[in-house]
Design a protein that fits this description.
This protein has helices spanning 37-54, 72-87, 107-121, 130-134, 138-145, 150-169, 180-193, 196-201, 224-234, 251-264, 268-277, 302-309; strands at residues 9-10, 13-14, 26-27, 34-35, 63-67, 93-100, 125-129, 173-175, 206-207, 215-216, 291-292, 299-300. By secondary structure, it is an alpha/beta fold. Strands 7-6-5-8-10-9 form a six-stranded mixed β-sheet. It has a two-stranded antiparallel sheet with strand order 1-2. Belongs to the TtcA family. CTU1/NCS6/ATPBD3 subfamily.
């Protein structure tokens, strides 16, 4: 059967535009193609495989820690990396690495999801906590500083906690679930803040190569909506509640703006990433120097110095 435009249709719905055999189950947010579940799984996984190969994210024999929060991004990343590692013989040793910030009613529940993923995917799990590393939980920090700028503090501590956990696991890289939406948001945030230094490196698919343990983003060009669809159709076990301290975060405004753009132009997310990739800093621009904490020796910012003064 054909519709008025000459496109194949099946009784009860349109056929998949890729295989032309099965009924279309979804419209891809990135391309607007109408495809079946099976073809969606194939193209989703193949696109990620291509990103990994084209950018040489991994080498055979490497130990890779997957930053696992229990949310959709890290859960799908753990599942897909496990599948691709077997299918394409990457030769990687994969681990789950979680950070317990000490947020009651949020992180304690999400960590239960990660523990189930450990069993489901057969990947060893390492959990590091703010309480063990710094002597404070995020709940205790918020009680001291209030809700203003708490995400900034948490971000600094979380990055350092991931570094420390990765060192304990003796891994070669940390793979994070940052997706295309996240990176586009970061590009916009750095423009709005006038943060030239971060704008110059925020689209890099591998970061921290000059540090102890590099990080990579296999989902750099993967839309958040497609990650959600993949998790839904695969019936993956993930935690979907937002952090109780994040509703007023500045990033949320950039996220809503990008969603509005995407409704008008689906490729807007990739366009923003491309603009960030093409950004060039003038050689005459003075760049800020990245600091190192005098007490712990890790890459730091004013946040670490503030908490040194508070005797954390």
């Amino acid at each position: 059967m054909e519709d008025n435009d000459g496109k194949q249709k099946k009784a009860g719905g349109r056929l998949c535009s890729i295989c032309t055999q099965r009924k279309a189950a979804l419209k891809r947010p990135k391309t607007l193609e109408q495809i079946c579940r099976e073809c969606f799984f194939d193209v989703f996984e193949e696109e990620i495989h291509k990103v990994i190969i084209d950018n040489q994210l991994f080498k055979s024999g490497e130990r890779i820690a997957i930053g696992a929060s229990g949310g959709k991004d890290s859960t799908v990343l753990a599942y897909v990396l496990s599948e691709l590692n077997r299918r394409h013989n990457y030769g990687l040793d994969l681990f789950l690495l979680s950070v317990d910030e000490g947020i009651t009613g949020y992180r304690d529940d999400s960590l239960e999801t990660v523990k189930r993923n450990e069993v489901q995917y057969g990947l060893p799990l390492k959990v590091v906590s703010y309480k063990d590393l710094y002597g404070w939980t995020m709940d205790e920090i918020v009680k001291m500083i209030g809700l203003k700028n708490n995400c900034t503090f948490c971000g600094v501590f979380r990055r350092q906690a991931l570094d420390r956990g990765a060192a304990l696991l003796k891994v070669d890289k940390v793979a994070t679930g940052h997706n295309a939406d996240d990176i586009a948001e970061t590009v916009l945030l750095n423009i709005l803040r006038g943060d030239i230094a971060r704008l110059g490196r925020c689209t890099s698919i591998i970061t921290g190569e000059d540090g102890p343990i590099p990080r990579c983003k296999p989902f750099k060009y993967t839309y958040e909506k497609e990650i959600v669809m993949y998790a839904y159709f695969k019936k993956l076990d993930y935690f979907s509640t937002e952090c109780i301290y994040s509703p007023n975060a500045y990033r949320g405004f950039a996220r809503e703006f990008i969603k509005d753009l995407e409704r008008i132009r689906p490729r807007a997310i990739l366009d923003i990433i491309k603009s960030g990739e093409d950004f060039r800093i003038s050689t005459t621009t003075k760049m800020p120097e990245q600091g190192t904490c005098e007490r712990c020796g890790y890459i730091s910012s004013q946040v670490c110095y503030i908490f040194s003064c508070l005797h954390i």
